Amino acid sequence: MGLPIEKTIALDVETEPFDEKNGKSLGKFSELKRMERQAGNSIIQGSVADIIKLAMRNVDSVLPDSVILLQIHDELVVEVPESAAEERAKKIKELMETCLDLITVKMKVEPKVCRYWSK
Q1: Domains of the chain: which residue ranges?
Q2: Which residues are registered as beta bridge partners of 77?
Q3: What's the start-to-end Cα distance of the chain, in Å?
Q4: CA 80 to CA 82: how far, in whole Å?
């Protein structure tokens, strides 16, 4: 059966190798459905990873005085000068929402400004 190939939005290729023997022994319906879900899920998760990487690159290049401290799934923790926090939050929102031109889906970003991570 070979290698199934999936492409993310940025055209990264995800493959899950399996041999001919396993590829032909898909007698169980549930195993086939599991593989279909896994294939679809890897495209979605890979595309989300592409989007956050683009956003991080944009924030880093456009706002050199801002430091990306942490990335968790689709969120960024960015350290900025306190005097410019509100202005930087608006710019980061714009950069994240426009990092990839999706025709059918508008990305929504909700920035929060706080002094401490625990807030």
Answers
A1: 5-97
A2: 70
A3: 52
A4: 6
Write out the DSSP string of 22-89.
Answer: HHH----HHHHHHHHHHHHHHHHHHHHHHHHHHHHHHHHHH-TT-EEEEEETTEEEEE--GGGHHHHH
pTM score, whole prediction: 0.67
Say which residue the tokens 């944009």 belong to.
58
Express each pLDDT in 67-102 by its tens digit.
999 999 889 999 999 999 999 999 999 999 998 887
Q: How many CA atoms lie within 13 A of 60 on its CB side?
A: 11
* Pair 97, 109: CB distance under 8 Å: yes
